[in-house]
Write a structure and sequence with these properties.
Radius of gyration: 13 Å
Number of helices: 0
Number of strands: 10
Amino acid sequence: QVQLVESGGGLVQPGGSLRLSCVASGLTFRSYAMSWYRQAPGKERELVATIFGTGGTTNYLNSVKGRFTISRDNAKNTVYLQMNSLKPEDTAVYYCKVPAYADWGQGTQVTVSS
């Protein structure tokens, strides 16, 4: 069973930045792609970004390209999501996930509001 613990969410003004972290256990972290998802109230969960095992390949949701950066530290079993130029529509609960597994973490709330 994979365990995922997200942190780093909070309340931020539009245009601000946050850095989310997710520590994974129960797997050989460096061997797996990692993803960030988000779910806004009343909406379906959507894939935000994915980074592959070596960290050399990343994919992003179109609406966050150029603003969000996914990265990983395989020595710390941690994946990050740097979020800049935040907009109110980025407000959601953010989750990390290992695409190869069904497990989800508890998520971390991001609220962008003035």
